[in-house]
Specification:
Elements: E1 4-8, H1 11-21, E2 25-29, E3 35-36, H2 41-44, E4 45-46, E5 52-53, E6 56-57, H3 62-73, E7 77-80, H4 86-99, E8 106-107, H5 115-123, H6 130-157, H7 168-184, E9 189-199, E10 203-209, H8 216-225, E11 231-243, H9 251-262, H10 266-278, H11 294-307, H12 346-361, E12 367-378, E13 381-394, E14 425-437, H13 446-455, H14 464-473, E15 477-482, E16 485-495, E17 498-508, E18 511-517, H15 519-531, H16 538-552, H17 558-575, E19 588-592, E20 599-605, E21 608-613, E22 623-626, H18 638-645, E23 652-657, E24 660-667, E25 670-675, E26 678-681, H19 693-708, E27 711-715, E28 718-725, E29 728-733, E30 736-739, H20 751-766, E31 771-772, E32 778-784, E33 787-792, E34 795-798, H21 810-819
Parallel strand pairs: 1-2, 1-7, 7-8
Antiparallel strand pairs: 3-6, 4-5, 9-10, 9-14, 10-13, 11-12, 11-14, 12-13, 14-16, 15-18, 16-17, 19-20, 20-21, 21-22, 23-24, 24-25, 25-26, 27-28, 28-29, 29-30, 31-32, 32-33, 33-34
Length: about 850
Amino acid sequence: MAKNLVIVESPAKAKTIEGYLGKDFVVKSSFGHVRDLPIKGDKAIDVENDFAPTYVVSADKTKVISELKSLAKSSEEVWLATDDDREGEAISWHLKEALGLKDNAKRIVFREITKPAILQAITQPRTIDMDLVNAQQARRIMDRLIGFELSPVLWSKVQKGLSAGRVQSVAVRLIVEREREIENHEAVATFKVVAHFDLPGKKVLKAELSKAFAKENDALDFLKKCVGAAFSIKSLETKPAKKTPAPPFTTSTLQQEASRKLGFAVATTMSVAQKLYESGRITYMRTDSTMLSQEARDKAKAEIESAYGAKFHYSRQFKTKSESAQEAHEAIRPTDFANHSITGDAREKRLYELIWKRAIASQMADALIERTTALIDISTTPELLSAQGEVIAFEGFLKAYLEGKDDEEEDENKDMLPPLNVGQVLALDEMKAQERFTRAAPRYTEASLVKALEEKGIGRPSTYAPTISTIIKRAYVVKEDRPGREREFQTWVLSNNEIAGNKATETVGTEKAKLFPTHIGTLVTDFLVENFENVVDYTFTAEMEDEFDNIAKGKLEWTVLMKNFYKSFHQTIEDSKSINRSSVGGGRELGVDPKTGRLVSVRLGKFGPFVQLGESSEEEKPVFANLMKTQSVSTLTFEEALALLERPKLPREVGIHNDMPVIIGAGKLGPYIKYDGKFTSLPDTHDPFTIEMDQAIAVIAQALKDAEAGGLGYFEDSLIETGKGRFGPYVKHNGKYYSLAKTDNLATIDQARAIELIEAKRKVEANKFIKEFAENETVKVVNGMYGPYIQIGKRNVKIPKGTEPADLTLEECLALGDAAPAPKKARKK
């Protein structure tokens, strides 16, 4: 056996590192975390004994630990080489405990997987840093206590199957509050004046009036003053300016820029970055730091001078803004600046090039700019028009990279002005006074949510991606595109000394990959804000992160933090028992229906928000109508509620085509069109209650066209395709393959059946989880003959109605098991 055993987290790393260390070393992987708190909360943490945790080896890691134990016993030295952050430190500690290693076990760290970095780490071993371990331990225990004690409150007072979390609930609150801000925004109209002047050589000069007019008549009066006016250049002012490159990437700025420039989701960015790190292409991808080592800056200098020239180099050390930046880590950068690009899949190539450009630009010279402002005199009024432009005198870092901006921000770059002279007379082509409207704050994208969380000090680099994934998976938030709406605006145009007005329409509010709160996400947020303010308080959550930092620095005992937190938190949980469940739900009475005299209200049920006509206490049963996706309980008006109640009921016949009825219906997979015995999903662009005959026929025709091309129509905006492979016939959707059942065949399968197969496979995949208790029991969600149920060891537990089995967490499964009646003992004969 080898003299030295090195344990890393990832098998991809193990293979690379083993090649660097030589024959005296064997490198093995722990495959991530090896121990965790047991699922049963009352046995996981001893609150009365300084929050002492009980850890167990995860069920899927017993074999790994057994193999590592055997290797450790036969090795002269064991080296713990997990990631260089708090989570990695905690994994090393858990490995030490699980393998029975001594307290002085050798711990090595590195921020890049290159031979020099690995060999240097071996020469500088240390012991496990228990301050870092305790910081991670405090976070884990606090999050467990919040989730384990607060989630059952949500089940009993709001709805089964809900969950709460220290960071996830705050993230949802941000999105809910932004949505309400948008809903309450009242657009204010102003008139902006823009003029275009014809210059020699078919060039055009664009100029603007610096102020906007609040009233249409004032804008029109200004245009009237300009009729017959002479326009000339009053002054030209040119000022030198410079642009400085952005710092190299931190975790959050990488996520934001990859979203803007590459269209990557946050989770995608982290997954691709992990692969780049493990293959030795970039430094560690979880960092708050913007610093580069002296060695990295020297290598960047050599590459800049080689690729661009010496005048393009300028050495900088960016100071990390975040006080919580951990342990003087480096920013994310290439391990070898000489590699401008890499081999690999398309996403790896694109992300690597983005990282390379950002890091190399940070060590390049400023871009030198000449900004020119031209003021234009109007002979008939003291008001001045202004034209601005800029010329790049020296590209500097722009030769390599320019930082992107969120789409709601205006681009600062100005067009280059044509040659102008003071006193030059200008010929007016046209002057417009166009109605513009103030805009509400933009909805969050994944990237801008990360930015907001970081600015508020909530979460850390390792938490952003899982937080966003969790709130989407829990259906508190949806990420989707939504169509805009048309809005009319007024324009007045002065041309050839005549003023003409016209009205036009524009599409506003179109959203692309934005985060929207769901009705249940809004309800849970309101409940938590009202009853558990600290849990979703921005300051409190940020302060907790600061306290974790203090623990990591050895300035605070983690048990002291837990005691201070838990006393008030647990009391709030106890107080919540008095909350009246009927007061939760956000229901509102909207008015009395003029036709029937019955009360109209809007409420939130377990299947979503709905309008109700009448009350259950009356002899006549209430009438219900679901809200549309774009409507909410908090903003629905009385008129909108009446319109929903007056919508035709589904299924409805919209007409006859080729002597066969065309029927619009709604099923568990969404609205559909039934024609000639076949079902076609109705695209989101059509409302099932208002779609007309010609539109329905067009949808059917498109579905037939897709089928002829080997498709079965669209589902979730992606075409369902069919084919036959080495494992038999299948349907393909979004790049994934779904095998047909034995009773299906390609000749007869339709869109509805294909969607059923896709949904069924997704549920099976979502239900594949097994975890271990302290008692060595396992928890499974099983699809049985009579529906899904929870299996805890040898005991079966019923899943309450309205609870989605695929969304159940382990803590929720266990709590349901605890709440279920004890199994009846078999009678003795």
